[in-house]
Amino acid sequence: MITIRSVKGRRDLRAFIRFNYHLYKGNPYAVPDFLEDMLDTFDRRKNAAFEFCEAELFLAYDGKKIVGRVAAIINHKANKTWGNRNVRFGYIDFIDDIEVARALLDTVEQWGRERGMNKIVGPLGFTDMDPEGMLIDGFDQLSTMSTIYNYPYYPKLLEQLGYEKEIDWVERKVTVPTTEAQADSAKYIRVAELSRKRYNLHMRHFRSHKEILAEQGGQYVQKVFGVINKAYADLYGYSEMNERQILQYANTYLQFLDMRLLAIVENEENEPIAMGVGIGSLSHALQKAHGKLFPFGWWHLAKAIYFKPAPVLDLLLVGVLPEYQNKGVNALLFAEIIPVAQKLGFVWAETHPQLENNEKSQGQWAHLDCVIHKRRRCFQKAL
Fold it and tell me: Which residues of the chain does CATH 3.40.630.30 include?
C-alpha cells in the first residue's frame, strides 16, 4: 500500500532531495540535483521566492521504502499576474508504478483544492529560474545542471492519469561555427555592426563576478536582471524577480562563470538593454561529484571550471528589452559570444528551454547550424 507523508525536518528534506539521485544512479544522461543548492531552495529563510509562494513537500512510501516525491507549490504572484488559480507540482520523481504517481498527484490536487485552486500545472518550480517541464523527447541526450531529466514512463503515466498538454519547450544543439562562412555566422557580425551604429550601442565587459556585483553599489546587476524581467514578462507563467531573488541568483551563478561568456549590451546612456550568458557544461562534473559539494565534489567542479572544461557550452539566459527586439540586438550578443566560444574550444552549445510558441526566440538560431534535440512539456488538469 502506498502512503504519502509530508516532509518534516531536515532528515526528511535530505531524503526528498536525494531520492532523485538514487532513482537515477548510473543513468548516463541524468544530472543529479546539487544537494547544497536544493537545501537552499527549500529553505524559507534563504529562498526569496517564499515571499510570494507557499509550498509543501511530500514523500511516497511503500512500507518503509521511499518510492516517489513531489512538491506542491502556489506562486501567488504568478497567479495574480495571469489571473489564474493554479497549483503547481514540481520536483516530481517516482518509480514506474501508476499507483505511486497517482498518490503523489492526488495529494497535490487535494492540497490545491483546499487552498482554492482550480487547476494543477507542472512540473514547474517556484519561478521560471527553477527547472521546469517534463522531458517528452530526447531521453538519450545528456541533461544539464539547470534542466529536468526523467524516464520515458513519466509522461506516459501522467497521460493515463488524465493530464494533458499545457505548453511545450524545445532545446537545441547548436554547432559552434569553425569559420565565418559556416552556418552564415558572418551575418551576425554584419547585422551586429549595423545595429551597433544605428542605435548607438556598445558592449560592456567585466573581469570578475565581484566587479559586476559591486558596480553602482550593487544596482547594476539589478538592472541586468531587470532586462530579463521585462524581456520575459509575457512568457508563460512568468513572475517578476524581486531584488532579493536577483541577488540570490547572481550570488549563486556568477561565481561559476567565465566572465568572457557574459555579453551585455548597453545604450548610449550606458544602461543595459540586452544580455546573454553561457557557462561551460558541468553535467559530467556533477555526475562524478554525485550531486554533492563535499567531501570531494568540489574538486570535480573546480576541474571542469578551471582546468579541463567540457566541450559543451550551456546557454543559460538570453534577453533583450522589448523596445530593442527585432532590431539586430540579438546579433550583437551572438557576435560577442561566438568568437569567445571558438577561442575557448567549445564544439557545440546547448540552448536553454524555449517556449515552442515564442517565435522571436526561435528565430534567433536561423543562421546557425542547429537541431532541436529535446522537447519538454508542462501538463495540466482541471480540479
Answer: 2-170, 174-374
- What are 240-292's pLDDT values in tens digits? 899 999 988 888 778 778 889 999 999 999 999 999 998 999 999 899 999 88
Quick one: cell of 118? 482550480
Instruction: Give dist(CA 113, CA 196) in Å, integer.
Output: 52
pLDDT tens-digit series, residues 165-189: 999 999 999 988 876 545 455 677 7
Query: Whole-structure pTM over 0.90, yes or no?
Result: yes
Give the whole-angstrom CA distance, residue 145 versus residue 54.
25
Report the phi/psi class of residue 254: left, alpha or beta, with left for phi > 0 and alpha for psi in -120 to 50: alpha
Burial class for 268, CB neighbours closer than 10 Å (0-12, 13-18, 19+) = exposed
Q: Are 212 and 254 in contact (CB under 8 A)?
A: yes
Name the stretches of the chain with pLDDT < 50: 181, 183
CA distance 132 to 255: 23
CA distances from 325 to 7, 113, 165, 361, 363 (A): 44, 40, 29, 10, 12
Separation CA 34–CA 315 (nearest Å): 19
- State the burial class of residue 98 (Cβ atoms within 10 Å of its Cβ: 0-12, 13-18, 19+): middle
Choose among 355, 359, 360: nearest CA to 329: 360
Residue with cell 529553505: 43
Fold exhibited by the domain 174-374: Aminopeptidase (3.40.630)
- DSSP lists the bridge partners of residue 56 as 72
Closest CA to 239 of 53, 39, 44, 42: 53
Class of domain 2-170: alpha beta
The residues, any chain, with a CB within 8 Å of residue 4's CB and separated by 6 or more, are 58, 59, 60, 61, 103, 104, 107
